[in-house]
Design goal:
The complex is a heterodimer of chains A (about 400) and B (about 400). With about 400 residues, chain A is an all-alpha fold. Chain A has 14 helices and no strands. In chain B, about 35% of the residues lie in helices and about 10% in strands. With about 400 residues, chain B is an alpha/beta fold. Chain B folds into two domains: about 20-240, Rossmann fold (3-Layer(aba) Sandwich); about 245-340, Cytochrome-c3 Hydrogenase, Chain A, domain 2. The chains are: A mainly alpha (about 400), B alpha/beta (about 400). The interface of A and B includes residues 241, 242, 313, 354 and 389 of A.
Chain lengths: ~400, ~400
């Protein structure tokens, strides 16, 4: 464990202003144009939001899916610090980075989506809070977690700036923040399900269940793990680095069991309630339900642990299928299965879509800047390679033993 | 109708409540309060002022209970069965305390010669004063031989008894307009009572069975005021048959809004929408079924309330004549071909937005596929655990 904690991280370096960087920047500018309209002329000028659909993709995708992608830090911290599985430590910093972006931009999306955003600060004033509101709980929890993430990630900045004294002092209290960093997402990721429980019959029985908090928490965990794998594969391809294939493979086993649990609970709940019949109607709800289930099952099949460790292609495919599955589940819960009453329809406007695209583009741009200029990824030197190989030999035997 | 008959124990005035307490035995086990409430209820059913309930109460306990002779012709006893299920008053209160039911083939305590001779005694003693109720159609073909009681045709019996009756009530659709027995080919020449007794006023209370309260209210009106309630052109009491079922139907708003069940068990049927297109005869049938319901079951306890279209049992030329599923001929409003929408659709997909969204999903899947294929070919190979580990 000690060795892994001393893991040396370094900036990847390289050119910052690549064609891809400018492409992403263009998307961010387009989003900026629509956001300008939104703030000058109001929500109605850009979005298709209505009294029936007071939230759209800015909440369903930017916040609900975005923060699930941001659960990388949560999932890995849970594994490394709570379950004390130190071998996953090389994944912590990139995971925290993904979390920081996912959550910060999710929080930004909420502020963009607030009709009277200039009153948004009121939710932080205890004497104005509505303590029975599950949305307040979620909002405060997310805000707190963004702060915690910044503290958790701050060693990266401190290392870069060479502030060793502060770093040392921070290390002494960091465990508190790590603890909070696991507690808070457990709270608000399940609360995102509770928000829907409160909606009652407005949510189709295909999704409405008392188990929503559990399902949301589970899906946040496996989406968090999946984004770690997804990012690691992309980083190794993009920056031509060796892949943490062995660690990632072990992680896949954890994900497979989580995903299996999710699918079993999801289907058993529908069977128990008898609402599975709704899945055999000819409508959008049923179609999207089957898309969701098909993605989950496909991901599960791709993931299922076997004797031979998975190829990078298989890992990439399973991780991206899993991300798609989780995203579709969340969009189904927040938009497709949500029926506010007869006559209301919603499909995002071009403006809404472009803002969402812009936010994700910004996320990728910032990621590139951070890993190129800050010590996020671990160094790939000879010592690391040797240690890594030894660890693969030891753990490999155990892993293969488990799988068989 | 008989010219202003003096009522049986007609009340002297609405302002005086008689000495009801001394008639405790006459109240059918009800307390004084319950009894007055019941009489007020009867007044309400008749569409009369509640004050008149007092007169009804006085009349009901006046002691001079009107004798009633009930003759059953070609019928199924459904009308009597319906009457047995009345609860305000119960049948025993009616026949033991309010009227003197001297002859009824189903409810007689005696039988055979005993019953017949008691009827003859009562008719003789009350000639000109009794109430004659007939349920069932009267067969007239071949001299009426198709329905005989005690060796006499019911045709002869009814004609004879009608001469001494103060009022005549035809109970049920068979008696009122022929009903089932008169439907083609009508082998017995079944005829409604008013055709057999063409020179007399016959109050028609059609229905299959009629609501017992329509009968009871008519009888009690007669007992209380000594006269029959207002009748329409077909001699039906206006208080019960003055409105189309369609007018008071609880599903009427669905008719007006264009929400129809199109077949049994479809979405509209399960939603409780209008049954017009299933052949509901409510728009051409005059009766108070939706207003008072059946069997004291509360609102909705009538055929349309339970999801079955009305088949027009009270209406001559509709019930047992028209096909159950043929459309009613609308007597009031014809539904328009187009209705205003109940819900205005709002929002929806802009084609450009769909194109952008599909483009993004397509691009993501495409990029993923390209990347996946590259990973297979040129990607870094995973560090496998050594072979000996297996």
């Amino acid at each position: 464990m000690a060795k892994q904690s001393d893991q040396v991280h370094a900036p990847v370096g390289g050119r910052l202003f690549t064609p891809m960087f400018f492409g992403l920047g263009l998307l961010v500018l387009v989003a900026g144009f629509f956001l300008f309209n939104r703030f000058v002329f109001g929500l109605g000028s850009v979005t298709n939001l209505s009294d029936g659909y007071p939230w759209g993709i800015w909440i369903a995708i930017d916040l609900v899916v975005g923060t699930a992608l941001g659960c990388a830090g949560y999932a890995v911290a849970l594994l490394v610090y709570i379950l004390n599985r130190g071998e996953y430590h090389p994944l912590v910093r990139p995971a925290l980075l993904a979390s920081l972006f996912g959550y910060a931009l999710g929080g930004a999306a909420v502020m963009i989506d607030l009709g009277r955003y200039w009153q948004g600060y009121n939710m932080f004033l205890p004497w104005l809070s509505q303590y029975n509101s599950v949305m307040l709980e979620t909002a405060l929890c997310i805000a707190a977690y963004i702060t915690v993430l910044m503290v958790e990630f701050s060693p990266v900045f401190l290392e870069r700036l060479g502030m060793k004294n502060i770093r040392r002092r921070l290390d002494k209290v960091l465990f508190i923040f790590i603890g909070l960093g696991v507690l808070l997402p457990t709270m608000h990721q399940s609360s995102m399900g509770t928000i829907l429980v409160v909606l009652g019959h407005q949510l189709s029985p295909l999704w409405q269940t008392q188990l929503l908090p559990l399902l949301f928490l589970t899906s946040a965990l496996f989406m968090g793990f999946a984004i770690v794998v997804f990012e690691a594969v992309l980083a190794s391809v993009g920056f031509r680095r060796p892949m943490e294939a062995f660690i990632l493979n072990k992680l896949s086993t954890v994900m497979a069991w989580l995903l299996l649990g999710f699918v079993v609970v999801r289907i058993a709940d529908l069977l128990f309630r008898g609402d599975i019949v709704l899945a055999f109607r000819a409508n959008l709800d049923a179609l999207m339900f089957w898309v969701e289930i098909a993605l989950h099952v496909t991901a599960l099949v791709l993931l299922w642990p076997r004797r031979i460790p998975a190829s990078p292609r298989r890992m990439f495919l399973s991780a991206s299928t899993m991300l798609a599955a989780g995203a579709v589940y969340r969009i189904n819960c927040y938009l497709v299965g949500y029926h506010p009453g007869d006559g209301w329809n919603y499909f995002p406007s071009v403006g809404e879509i472009m803002v969402t695209v812009g936010i994700f583009a910004l996320e990728i741009m910032l990621y590139l800047v951070f890993v190129k200029r800050l010590p996020v990824l671990h160094t790939v030197d000879r010592a690391y390679r040797e240690e890594h190989a030894a660890q693969a030999r030891e753990g490999g035997a155990a892993a293969v033993g488990q799988a068989t | 109708m008989h010219a202003e008959p003096a009522g049986f124990g007609a009340a002297e005035g609405a302002d005086r409540i008689g000495d009801l307490d001394s008639y405790r035995n006459a109240l059918g086990g009800l307390t004084r309060r319950q009894f007055l409430k019941y009489c007020t209820g009867v007044a309400a059913t008749l569409g009369l002022s509640p004050e008149l309930g007092v007169r009804i109460a006085n009349a009901a306990v006046s002691g001079a209970r009107p004798p009633v002779i009930w003759i059953s012709a070609q019928e199924c006893t459904g009308c009597t069965e319906g009457l047995l299920r009345s609860y305000h008053p119960t049948l025993e209160t009616l026949i033991l305390d309010q009227i003197s039911l001297d002859y009824h083939e189903t409810l007689c305590a005696g039988a055979g010669h005993q019953a017949e001779s008691f009827r003859e005694q009562s008719v003789e003693a009350n000639w000109g004063n009794y109430l004659l109720v007939v349920d069932g159609a009267i067969p007239t073909k071949d001299g009426g031989i198709y329905c005989q009681i005690a060796g006499k045709t019911v045709l002869d019996t009814v004609v004879r008894l009608a001469d001494g009756a103060r009022a005549i009530i035809a109970m049920g659709s068979c008696a009122a307009w022929g009903g089932i027995p008169s439907s083609g080919p009508n082998p017995t020449g079944a005829t409604p009572v008013h055709e057999v007794l063409a020179d007399k006023t016959v109050v028609n209370i059609p229905g299959c069975p009629p609501n017992p309260y329509n009968f009871l209210s008519t009888v009690l009106h007669f007992v209380a005021f000594g006269s029959l309630p207002a009748l329409d052109s077909k001699n039906r009491p206006r208080f019960a048959y003055g409105r189309l079922i369609h007018e008071n139907c609880e599903r009427r708003p669905h008719f007006d809004a264009g929400r129809f069940a199109r077949e049994f068990g479809d979405e509209g049927h399960r939603q409780g929408w209008c049954l017009y297109y299933l052949g509901c005869k409510g728009p051409e049938t005059w009766a108070n079924c939706p207003a008072i319901g059946f069997n004291d079951g509360g609102s909705g306890s009538w055929p349309v309330g339970t999801g079955h279209p009305c088949f027009g049992c009270t209406e001559q030329g509709v019930g047992f004549t028209k096909s159950i599923h043929s459309l009613a001929s609308l007597q009031t409003v014809t539904p328009p071909t187009a209705f205003p929408r109940v819900v205005e659709e709002q929002g929806g997909a802009d084609p450009a937005a769909i194109a952008v969204a599909s483009g993004i999903v397509g691009a993501a899947v495409g990029a993923g596929a390209v990347l996946a294929s590259r990973l297979g070919k040129h990607g870094p190979t995973p560090e496998r655990p050594p072979e000996d580990a297996k």
